[in-house]
């Protein structure tokens, strides 16, 4: 399979285009029955390719310009630890995932991003050669296939992300790097602005944030990265792929420290209307690669694409089944539902949880937050 | 395509087996980009068969013993009104949907149910011949294909459901009938017990409730149906396919009267643990056909199958990617997440909404509730 | 001290006047430092008369037409059990309380009601002679002083209330009787309508509900009493003195079964605007003696008097320090506070709790509710 | 009337004693019917001395070591603007208030503090001589009576507070100064640490925070003041008299910007158990003058005194009517209430609001917050 001649990620971003990213794979495929929570490894690319292909297609149809390979946690050391698959190698998953991403990307105008994430090896060994060897091996898997650029994602120590970028840059392909950190900085307290500077100096073409915190908090963190780059006189494109949940309580540790993680997050899920607001905020902050991570389902990505319709000049395919701002409700049989076919209604609605015995905010895991706090200079 | 030799729905229920139903199609496919909210018509069976097939597969994998044809609102009069498709006929959709359901059902030990729902014609004309003609036409579509039994669902006037049952019984196949009513009765105030009696007298083999209200409320309504049948000396199997949302406020009109319907229901979504409780309550009430409707995603159906594992003697395929009661969290990297790998944690958790400016209960559309109330004798 | 010549309670009610009751003493005096929670006995009438006098005055100033003697739980058997006072007799308290009530009542146009409440003896002995002897002793204390009528209050078995009424009627003075029961009936499941009939047949001139449940629920119960009386062809005046807290969860057992009772009820306290709504509902239900019980502070009574200003033809003295519906905010220094000087603002406000980790509804003490439920026929 | 020989405020604080302040007057007297909301002027000292005296007594009985004169907003310019009283002069109120405070203080071991608050003149004229003349006049009223020290309170520009301190120091009496500001600083963005330095340099013996924000936030602000003083090598005693409401939303403007201000704050009221936590935090922060402001009722002050019982060596008089941590519930008639007679129960309770249609957090008045924000350097 070969890539059609299409414009690369940097061409698009350099031209000032809005690039819509795809949504989250592991949480959604967990709910569909193909990923094991706690492990979060992507063996479904080999075991159930039709399920992965279908989710790729839904994101493409929702407006995504990038299809990320379903290769989260797909380093050999992580696969070993999880013990989730014994008869499939990391290389097999990486290669199958590249094929699936390419197949679907070619059904539209999308690019394929080869994705790597943090390694257990980093925390365990703290050895630059060992960690880099792991990233090198995964990169080689990708390079045997046809991908357009790389994304380093879900790394919470900037040092590890820098090592990953340094490896991936040797491929000659563009590299994006997103940390899963809060406005307070990385796990060692390195502030977002300085993280961005280090990543760009290491060669990253695009920097930003993914996962762990809600969209508006992630926008704040990317703004701090941008300010850091400006202060240092550096330039890079900005990207963002936040969590699709309301998580006001976990400013430091991210949503894994919430009591609801990972099996009772339903009530925190964002609506499509929340995503309109997020996309606009991200755009206004100067971010041009706007996608999602855990919790982002296809209709959330469609909401980004619909909010960006004027800037991009078109609606995504899935909008044929979606009236903007609820317009399709105009023909509902109940008059009070018809009355909801307008932007003001949905923008101002404060949705009830239907759970009167539940609080609106929880208490995140204390120890973790405290540990992080002790790393962060105030 | 032809059905393998497998035991029919009545054979299974007569033998005392627990039959796990599938989940909801229209809401889930709306979020995946293939169904238009407000219209809710199933043209995706023709337009995007891969998306419908994949969702069927996920429900099968989650443990469903029945695959329902994706034919909701697929009567010609409803399709005309919605105006959503002009180049596809109802017959084309019905036939494509039968093929898809059969294809997936045959991948496991599942039956195909041909589904009909309420017709606009009933409220408009109130004409028995006209309504019956519509059901007859849809039945004929199904009979050209290979289905195992019929389900009448989402009807809120028992009279219309009776007419549907009378038509479908002429096929010689078993018929299940589920009303979308509350414990207060149907739209004209006919109490659940009497509704059940009328349906069984019309020929229904299985009766129960689907959609519109949350699981535990629907269990209460089915119990009232059961009591009505017992009082009348009648026998029938009981089924239930409730809403997958917490809806404590809409005791009469159902969830369409909630302010969040249909685009901000996220926060009301039930967790998998809520479904364990529901499945157990339904089983204890004597219900043996236990499934879901709008809001039930594959992992909710898996939760039913896991709760019923002892009664059924096996776990569903999708449980290979799911530790019971969170057991797979035992190998999570964070110690406080590992501590959640046990039943007590999830059973007692009161999930927070992360939305401190939102209330926990809303105010349903008043006019509708009042109108219904006036029909219901107190 | 002697009563001025003033019109009696029945003269007023027979003339169709709205009689405003006073508010709750024990909870308010607990917060002021003079009553011991758990005991709830009224020895402050002897120990700290200035504190009781001041609260009487505040209720008078707020518009009350009746000053109730501060004699709650002031039967000898209850005082013995509580062990709260050893050097003061019940007779001393009753007499001191009568003097205080009379002193303040005479400062305005108010009547003095001598109050008796349920006795521990009833549940312990279930002996009519014993219980009646206790009520007789308390009545005699009152008759040595100058009171205008009697109120039996806070009784949850109608049988005991009937006994109390039978005793007090021997005084020749009017008797009002209020039960602390829910719409489901008394502790033995006697429905409100039948309770009212029994009380009126025993001689009660005024019947109704006090304490234990929130205002609108108590209005519902009084309506059931009224319907019972009408069905039986009986006539009596209606009175109501509900709880000043939001208690949607405790339909059976009342607020003592709430987890917040008695030291964390703050968050459930009703606003003055809630009281406007309550007073109007009570009036519309035909109730003409409208007051409050636990949780009603002077400003809540003022709100009743302000809502009833048109019907009564005057405002209470304390309204000189209160603009109707917030009118006095017109001269506030902050413009956004000035904007709140209107009825619509306060009627439509949904006040936030400022407690994002707290739920909106609690779980009442199960055992008690279950025990009661078993007494109530469904 | 003359002061008994008792130890002064500085003697006590210098000796390391915990001084318990009194609670809030204007809000509580508004609810009792003697103060007009929006005006908040203290004419009740003349019009209804018995009401003011009673509230003083309740605070004394609850454990207060200081009785503040009821002279809030009692400068001539404020009284003129409010137009609330025309026949009483500021001097008359100030003098009557001194007599009432002294009368009650002498009933126990309490001191009298003469209180001044911010003047409308400051914002209007910004004239040092004019503002100082107003403070001088009020000081002279106090000096004609017998007071022990001065408190400047409820000032949100440190400059105005400095002017007040400079005037009051000419009396030779000790001066305490509390600002109503947030951790972000005063209305012009002067940080708390610098505010403290300026006040101490102006002569204040005690500095701290009062009103406007909830207790734990006020403790944070006082800590910042303390740090500022330490950095500057200055010494002063610390005091705190915060709001008695949960106000997590109004970090800048304070509770007047909350939608519930001033007539629907009930649901935000703190419990006595919240006050235990607050008193402990304040003590741990090195604050030794610990009282309350708006929302603090007598039982809240008692809670401070009970939490500080070990440090002070005694319980307040009102504790004779209060079992510590609910101990008096041990003799309640209901077993599940008896089970609440222990510290763990009340410390861990998350009280429900009983208002399922209300949110847990509100949106403060935007314009004001924005205006303040623009003054505060980030």
From TrEMBL, chains A, B, C, D:
Residues 7-308 form the Hcy-binding domain. Its cofactor is Zn(2+). Gene3D superfamilies: Homocysteine-binding-like domain. Zn(2+) binds at residues 211, 293-294. Residues 354-378 are annotated as: Disordered. Homotetramer. PANTHER family: BETAINE--HOMOCYSTEINE S-METHYLTRANSFERASE 1, HCY-BINDING DOMAIN-CONTAINING PROTEIN. This is Betaine--homocysteine S-methyltransferase 1-like. It comes from Cottoperca gobio (Frogmouth). The lineage of its organism: Eukaryota, Metazoa, Chordata, Craniata, Vertebrata.
């Amino acid at each position: 399979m070969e890539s059609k001649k299409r414009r690369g990620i940097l061409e698009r971003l350099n031209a000032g285009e809005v690039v819509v990213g795809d949504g989250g794979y592991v949480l959604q495929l967990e709910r569909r029955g193909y990923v094991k929570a706690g492990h979060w490894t992507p063996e479904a690319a080999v075991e159930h390719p039709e399920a992965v292909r279908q989710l790729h297609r839904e994101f493409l149809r929702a407006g995504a310009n990038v299809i990320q390979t379903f290769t989260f946690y797909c380093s050999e050391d992580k696969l070993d630890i999880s013990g989730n698959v014994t008869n499939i190698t990391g290389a097999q998953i990486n290669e199958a995932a590249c094929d699936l991403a390419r197949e679907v990307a070619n059904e539209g105008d999308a690019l394929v991003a080869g994705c790597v994430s943090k390694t257990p090896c980093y925390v365990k060994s703290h050895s630059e050669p060992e960690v880099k060897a792991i990233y090198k091996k995964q990169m080689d898997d990708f390079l045997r296939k046809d991908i357009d650029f790389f994304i380093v994602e879900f790394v919470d120590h900037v040092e590890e992300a820098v090592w990953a970028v340094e490896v991936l840059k040797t491929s000659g392909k563009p590299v994006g790097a997103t940390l899963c950190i809060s406005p307070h900085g990385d796990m060692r307290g390195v502030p977002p602005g300085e993280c961005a500077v280090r990543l760009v100096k290491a060669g990253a073409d695009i920097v930003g944030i993914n996962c762990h915190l809600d969209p508006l908090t992630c926008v704040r963190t990317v703004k701090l990265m941008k300010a850091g780059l400006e202060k240092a006189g550096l330039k890079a494109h900005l990207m963002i792929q936040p969590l699709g949940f309301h998580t006001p309580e976990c400013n430091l540790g991210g949503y894994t420290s919430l009591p609801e993680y990972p099996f009772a997050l339903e009530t925190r899920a964002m609506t499509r209307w929340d995503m309109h607001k997020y996309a606009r905020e991200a755009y206004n902050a100067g971010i041009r690669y706007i996608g999602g991570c855990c919790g982002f389902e296809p209709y959330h990505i469609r909401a980004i694409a619909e909010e960006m319709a004027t800037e991009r000049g078109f609606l995504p395919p899935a909008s044929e089944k979606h009236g903007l701002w609820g317009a399709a409700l105009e023909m509902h049989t109940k008059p009070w539902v018809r009355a909801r076919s307008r932007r003001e209604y949905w923008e101002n609605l404060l949705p009830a949880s239907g759970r009167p015995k539940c609080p609106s905010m929880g208490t995140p895991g204390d120890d973790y937050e405290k540990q992080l706090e002790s790393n962060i200079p105030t």
